[in-house]
Design a protein that fits this description.
This protein is of the alpha/beta class. It has 11 helices and 14 strands. It has 2 domains: about 130 residues, NAD(P)-binding Rossmann-like Domain (Rossmann fold); about 200 residues, Rossmann fold, CATH 3.40.50.300.
Length: about 350
């Protein structure tokens, strides 16, 4: 018999692996951030990708059927898409059942529960496979207290969704550790949880408990310890600003790093809304963040320059640093700019 379960912050990273990454028939790269995140930050756990007809997004991993992936060592299919609303389309179900029949467990970070798909649940029961939802918060979350906690906290914030907050947090946490600092990456979304093996999916928490969940995720720590917290959404987002504000208040960051993708000027999935400027994003996060941490400051800006060549990216980083008067880097490119950003964050 299969067992439906969820992964909470306190559970060990015991997900079945390696993974076959399922992208369905996705056409928007921004919605495939789970697949890209696992490819980039947990490549040793990814054996290939599984696409449906009509898909226009690829991770570049080998294309495999579930049967081929199982033969290559995969033990779970991960739904690598986080679409608007977190819904699993009905026309994906047959493909998921095929994966179960091939011997793979199913791991999902969607809002929609795998157990809400009767045909898939029947197949999992029949074949003895697990259906695992990671976008489920712990039970009995506390109401936020607003009490200032010990230790140091850095939160990545942004001008929009899906532009680099998770990658920036992961890169900074790794950089802090490489410098000999005691640092933890704190995951707040389904992809980060899959990478880290634990965390709290902030956008699945009941609103009254969201700031409390952020407090729980980043408890009191030693004076020299750093929690590097994955940001969510944007304070300017017409749909998700509430999640961003709860995370800002509850995590009480000492430092924020503002993330932006140059060239993006409209909100992803809400094209009738313009993106805010980097300056306005810094100002609003500092204004609202002072409510629970009066000493909050901006450590700098992270730009996602993946669409630019090396020379153009370096010129842009230098120009934006001069314009904004702070450290500006692309953490994935690294280099002197990223070292300067780390230095500014650490103060």
């Amino acid at each position: 018999m299969h067992a439906a379960r969820s992964l909470h912050q306190s559970e060990p990273p015991a997900l079945p692996a390696p993974y076959l990454l399922f992208l369905g028939d996705t056409v928007e790269p921004g919605y495939a951030k789970t697949a890209f995140g696992l490819r980039d930050w947990a490549p040793e756990r990814c054996v290939g990708e599984y696409l449906l007809p009509g898909a226009r997004v690829s991770t570049g991993l080998p294309a495999m059927s579930p049967t081929q992936a199982y033969a290559a060592g995969a033990r779970a299919l991960v739904i690598g898409v986080a679409n608007a609303g977190g819904v699993i389309p009905e026309h994906w179900v047959a493909a998921l059942i095929t994966a179960v029949e091939a011997g793979l467990d199913i791991i999902s970070g969607m809002h929609m529960r795998l157990s809400e798909l009767p045909a898939l649940q029947r197949a999992a029961t029949c074949h003895g496979r697990e259906l695992i939802d990671v976008r489920r918060p712990p039970d009995k979350l506390p109401i936020a207290t607003g009490r200032k906690r010990s230790g140091n906290r850095l939160l990545t914030v942004g001008t929009d969704c899906a532009l680099g907050k998770k990658y920036t947090a992961l890169a900074l946490a790794r950089a802090f550790t490489s410098r000999g600092l005691d640092a933890d990456f704190r995951a707040t979304g389904q992809t980060g949880i899959l990478i880290a093996g634990g965390g709290i999916p902030m956008d699945a928490v009941i609103a009254d408990f969201a700031a409390g969940a952020a407090e729980m995720l980043t408890p009191d720590a030693a004076a020299a310890h750093w929690d590097v917290i994955e940001g969510q959404g944007s304070l300017f987002h017409p749909a998700y600003a509430g999640v961003s504000l709860a995370l800002l208040h509850g995590s009480q960051p000492d430092v924020v790093v503002v993330c932006h993708q140059p060239g993006r000027d409209r909100v992803l999935g809400h094209a009738h809304y313009a993106l805010p400027s980097i300056e306005d994003t810094i100002a609003l996060n500092l204004q609202l963040g002072r409510r629970t941490n009066p000493r909050i400051r901006c450590g700098g800006v992270s730009l996602n320059t993946a669409h630019l060549d090396e020379d153009a990216a370096r010129r842009l980083l230098a120009a934006e640093s001069d314009r904004l008067g702070c450290a500006v880097a692309d953490p994935i490119r690294g280099g002197a700019e990223f070292e300067a950003l780390i230095n500014e964050c650490l103060g």
